[in-house]
Amino acid sequence: MPEPTRRGSREFLPSANQALAELEEATGKPVLIVDAPDLKVLATIRRAGPEDSSHVLRIKGGENRAADYLIVFECLMALRGGPGTQAVLRSSPEVRRQVISAIVP
To answer: pLDDT (tens digit, 9 = 90+) per residue, 42-75?
Structure first.
């Protein structure tokens, strides 16, 4: 697994910094930034589940400012339902059954 990156090792645009801060504030969990040079896209985030200590933001290296746009987008998508409203299907078989029964007639 690639090594975590400190936020200061790459300078983000203010909008990306704000989106990261909003995600951390809303969820109470930090965002772990990982440099992933083999990533097929510029940036992607995995929202922390109940058992996770942090969200994981993977970014392709370099100073491509389009990645900052995707960071903002990914953070906002992680927040789209508000904190705590998303079911984490891997958390338990019972949660999985509840979700399936809610969507299958």
So the answer is: 888 888 888 889 999 998 866 677 888 888 988 8
Query: What's the distance, CA 35 to chain centroid?
Result: 14
In this prediction the pTM is: 0.68
Residue 69, Cβ density class (10 Å: 0-12 exposed, 13-18 middle, ≥19 buried): middle
Neighbours of 90 (CB within 10 A): 10
Architecture of domain 4-103 in this structure: 2-Layer Sandwich (3.30)
The domains of the chain are located at 4-103
> What letter would DSSP give residue 27?
H
